[in-house]
Structures are given as structure tokens and as C-alpha cells.
């Protein structure tokens, strides 16, 4: 248990931040899943910039690693190229 007021506050803040970060990471993951499930190339091309923006924001705020964001974007790009 925390012994100082500041550490109690830090624990409270960390819980809030963790919840906030989980929400945005989960939202982005769902968007990536949705994009991977799309079979229409035009629809996927339209959705890609939105997902790309989400991933870049997460990487910028250190919610996910920048290389992970780059790998996901690269994979999505390849997926879109392979669509009929």
C-alpha cells in the first residue's frame, strides 16, 4: 500500500491513464480487424487513412510502439494491394 499522498495520487492517475489507453488501443485494434475483413478494394482504400491516423496517434503518445504501428500499417497496405 502507498505510504505517501503523492504515491496514492500517482496510483489513481495511473488507473485513469491505463483505462484511457486501453480504450484507444482497443478501438484501433477493432478498426484494423474491420479493415482486414473488408473484401472490397475501394472501401478498404477509403478506410485505410483513418486507421493509419489512429495508429500514428497511438504511436505518438507511446500507447503502442512506433515500429508496431509501422508493421501494422505495412501489413494493411499489403492486404489492400492483394484485394481484387
N-to-C order of helices and strands: HHH
Oligomer: single chain
Total helix count?
A: 3
Number of strands: 0
Taking all Cα atoms into account, the compactness measure Rg is 17 Å
Mean pLDDT: 95
Proportion of residues in extended strands: under 5%
- Report on the biggest sheet: none
Structural class: mainly alpha
Residue runs with pLDDT of under 50 for 5 or more positions: none
Note the main attributes of this structure.
84 residues, mainly alpha, 0% strand, elongated
Tell me what you see in this structure.
This protein is 83% helix and 0% strand. The protein has 84 residues and is mostly helical.
Q: How is the topology of this model organized?
A:
Elements: H1 5-37, H2 41-60, H3 66-82
Helix pairs in contact: 1-2, 2-3
Describe the structure concisely for a colleague.
Helix content is about 85%, strand content about 0%. It contains three helices and no strands.
Amino acid at each position: 500500500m502507498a505510504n505517501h499522498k503523492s504515491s496514492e495520487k500517482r496510483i489513481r492517475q495511473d488507473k485513469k491513464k491505463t483505462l484511457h489507453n486501453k480504450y484507444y488501443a482497443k478501438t484501433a485494434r477493432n478498426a484494423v480487424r474491420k479493415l482486414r475483413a473488408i473484401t472490397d478494394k475501394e472501401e478498404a482504400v477509403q478506410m485505410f487513412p483513418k486507421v493509419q491516423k489512429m495508429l500514428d496517434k497511438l504511436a505518438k503518445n507511446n500507447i503502442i510502439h512506433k515500429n508496431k504501428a509501422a508493421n501494422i500499417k505495412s501489413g494493411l497496405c499489403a492486404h489492400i494491394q492483394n484485394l481484387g
